[in-house]
Amino acid sequence: MAYLRLVIVGIAVLCGACNAQRSVVYLQDAEDGAAVELPDEYIIRLKPHDNITIVVSCKDPELAAPFNAATTYSVLAGGTTTTSATASALQVLTVGSDGTIAMPILGKIECVGLTREELADLIERKIREGGYITEPSVNVRLCDHAISVVGEVMRPGRYAIGKDKISILEALALAGDMTIYGARDNIAVVRECGGKNIVTRLDIRSAECFASPCYYLEQNDIVIVSPNKSRAATARINQNRSFWVSIASTAISLATLLITIFR
User: Does one domain contain both 136 and 75?
Assistant: First the structure.
């Protein structure tokens, strides 16, 4: 009987270990060497309120200078002053709610939904068609490409991204990875689209997460890592314990006061 009990206990421990492993291991069903399809044509596109820098260059710097002019406000003069933008102080343009940016000389340009390369090509074409520069070169950069990671991660916060493409796994790595209490099957990505917040959930225990439209993140996405059942249960126990400790402390204080009064 003692031997049978040991066998039963051993099986229970092994089953518990297997279940624990299944709850924390990433990409459990991904086979070695198997090709996994990624979201088609992923690329960041400009949205309203994005901040970008635009640098126009050509063989003659004097011809490009007006397109790189930065407008600043002069407090003493009470008016505006136009200065030449430099590499250390590039002009930052904000995409308006109407989906346009305002460039020197060229005026308003519609850019929402365009990639950086598409916007650069559009500006180059407008400069050539206007007869300003024969062979212009335009470079467009995002200034505020950042994502936020909150919840059960080691270092929650907002992270600036220096490249156009970042996956959900890379974002978690930036935040120091998930804690042991993070629910790997319930990661939410909040994305603003058309003035509305859309929530998409991913299970990174499965290779199916590669097919999610939120596997690659966009600017200003928020990644929320939910606590697992163990963490939630612990929180409830601690909350209940604090409640009863508070009740007991109040009761003791009240009893002490009554004893003092009627002594």
Answer: yes
